[in-house]
Amino acid sequence: MLAATVRVTRDLDAAEEAVQDAYVRALEIWTRDGVPAKPGAWLTTVARRNALNLIRRRRTLETKLPLLLGPTDADPPDAEVDADVIPDDRLRLVFTCCHPALDRDAQVALTLRLVCGVATPEVAHAFLVAETTMAARLTRAKKKIAAARIPYAVPGTDELPARVDAVLTVIHLLYSTGHAAPTGADLVRDELTGRALDLARMLRLLLPDEREAAGLLALLLVRPGASPCRPRLRRCTPRRRAMRRPTGRRS
After folding, report:
1. pTM for this one?
2. Which residue of 11, 113, 135, 209 has the lowest C-beta tally within 10 Å?
């Protein structure tokens, strides 16, 4: 949903705001009228509508208050980006977040949080830092994007090699987080591992000559978590450990 919305706004902060407003709207309407048949499509439509309204408000401000605005030469063009370079919205947004203007850790952390849906505590766990430290890093990265006016722009073919290493790191950490989830009842989170596998497959198709992309996909496929026939693993809580402990000696 964020990927579809950011294609309209070409601004990560604005897209995130539009998505959050869509969830708030859903709480109001679904409580009253019930959940629609296709909640995902409903949320995406509302988020895109919110994004369009935000763009109209911004254009109105630019028209009515020209003296309060700086030059707009850095604004992104109105033409649609070339979707043939990276045909999938999610992979396109991953490449976009991995912008060379940010340092490598910020690229990976921001992409995991905004694009891949990994919660801040889990991102912090992946980087082996405190949650407050990671939250501060994410805030600084978003502020840098806003200050530098980094637009949502799909990198050209010649720009992809400079971002591939960060994209590979994102996919690997996403899979690792799902394969051994640091929080929650389930030790394996299929939605994260499946998302990582999808991205790895699309990256392999996009860059067939990239050996590291092929190696990462092979690594993910041979891991036990990639098998659809594996048993469902649940985290062993203290209560479960107590239930497993024998209560007495056998005679």
Report:
1. 0.64
2. 209
Structure confidence by residue, pLDDT tens digits, 20-50: 888 888 888 888 888 888 888 888 888 888 8
Of 51-55, 66-70, 131-135, highest mean pLDDT: 131-135
- Rounded CA separation 113/177 (Å): 12
Rounded to whole angstroms, the Cα distance separating 23 from 47 reads: 8
Could you tell me which residues come within 8 angstroms of residue 21 by beta carbon, excluding any fewer than 6 positions away?
Answer: 46, 47, 50
List, in order, residues 6 or more apart from 32 with CB less than 8 Å away.
Answer: none
Buried residues in 131-169 as b, exposed as e (16+ CB within 10 A): eeebeebbeebbebbeeeebbbebbeeeebeebbebbbb
Domain extent listing, the chain: 1-75, 78-232
**Beta partners for 186?**
234
- Give pLDDT tens digits for 151-187: 666 777 888 888 999 999 999 999 998 888 777 677 7
**Residue of 143 and 239 predicted with greater confidence:** 143
Q: Which residue in 106, 96, 166, 101 sits closest to 136, CA to CA? A: 106
CA–CA distance, 93 with 221 (Å, rounded to integer) = 23
- Residue 130 backbone dihedrals phi, psi, to 5 degrees: -70, 155
The burial of 109, by beta-carbon neighbours within 10 Å (0-12 exposed, 13-18 middle, 19 or more buried), is given as buried
